[in-house]
Design brief:
Blueprint (H helix, E strand, L loop, with lengths): L2 H10 L12 H7 L16 H10 L10 E6 L2 H10 L10 H4 L2 E8 L1 H9 L10 H24 L3 E5 L6 H7 L6 E10 L17 H4 L7 H22 L6 H8 L11 H7 L6
Antiparallel strand pairs: 1-2, 2-4, 3-4
Bound molecules: flavin mononucleotide.
Flavin mononucleotide binds next to strand 3.
Length: 278
């Protein structure tokens, strides 16, 4: 098996794989992504954060407005409080935040644009609209994903933390965010600690027919592709020592209302922070 076949095997298992696919070193590295939830309590190599931020700033940004920021939390006491705010019902859900040297809080940030527009006699009314909120959130996500690629290229591990929205207002206050900004998600960064018996491996994805449509969206074809995914998903859960559960059961599980853990109040928190979402 070639190195490329092995990468596809990890990503798709026995499911249909692309028959022809372009390859280079960057694509190969992307296929190796896995979330890391066990960290060594070691500092990041010198310059790693700056490299991640340069990569993040190299992402496209809507209208060159740079409507995102990142708060790098390394102070252990502050990081512990951040972990607490993100833990929700399960008190130790994100305890690995305490082991990792750094958590990056990615901020969808209209604060600079708002001040500049008001000072410049412009019309900041656009910031009352859902599109401005989405623009800043998309910018933050694109920047963060570039930082992830940079981190992984340096042998570091990461995991995104959407649970940073559980207590959006409290977190914003904790890190002194200005109005017209909020933490869209967190990103834990550190050196992976692969624990014996808990190997964090590449998580298989459904076949491309589930997500790739040609010219017109084909719902039936997309859903049909999911049947093959169950077997790979089951193998992965078994490998991780997780309880037996189908992927479709997982979808139902994660869509339970109580899983929102406070995020059901997000709209209200956003309005308090200045986003009117019209
Ligand atoms: C926006 C976003 C938020 C996430 N939030 C969490 C989280 O709060 N806790 C967690 O353990 N993983 C979180 N994840 C990681 C996903 O569970 C993970 O990416 C997914 O299961 C696929 O696994 P992989 O990243 O190893 O391929 C999040 C991922 C994304 C993209």
């Amino acid at each position: 098996m070639t190195e490329h076949q092995a990468l596809l095997e990890q990503r798709y298992g026995a499911q249909t794989k692309p028959a022809r696919m372009a390859w280079n070193a960057q694509i190969a590295a992307l296929l190796l992504h896995r979330s890391v939830r066990n960290y060594l309590p070691e500092a990041l190599p010198e310059g790693a954060l700056e490299a991640m931020v340069a990569a993040a700033q190299s992402a496209s940004t809507s209208s060159n407005l740079h409507q995102w920021s990142v708060v790098a939390v390394g102070d252990p006491a502050l990081k512990a409080r951040v972990a607490e705010l993100a833990s929700g019902r399960k008190k130790d859900a994100n305890r690995f935040i305490n082991d990792a040297p750094l958590v990056l809080l990615w901020v969808a940030d209209l604060s600079r644009s708002h001040a500049i527009t008001c000072d410049g006699g412009g019309d900041a009314q656009v910031h009352d609209y859902l599109d401005a909120f989405l623009m800043a959130s998309i910018d933050a996500a694109l920047a963060a994903q570039n930082a992830v690629v940079a981190a992984e290229s340096m042998g570091l591990g990461v995991v995104y933390i959407g649970a940073m929205r559980n207590e959006a207002q409290a977190l914003a206050e904790l890190i002194h965010l200005p109005r017209y900004s909020f933490v869209a998600f967190g990103l834990v960064v550190g050196k992976p600690a692969d624990l014996p018996g808990k190997p964090e491996t590449v998580r298989p994805r459904p076949p491309q027919s589930v997500v790739l449509h040609h010219d017109r969206y084909d719902f039936q074809r997309s859903m049909a592709g999911l049947d093959d995914y169950e077997a790979e998903f089951g193998k992965f859960r078994e490998h991780m020592g997780s309880a037996r559960r189908s992927w479709k059961e997982s979808v139902v599980h994660y869509n339970r209302f109580d899983y929102m853990d406070g995020r059901e109040k997000l709209r209200q928190a956003m309005v308090e922070r200045g986003f009117n979402l019209l």
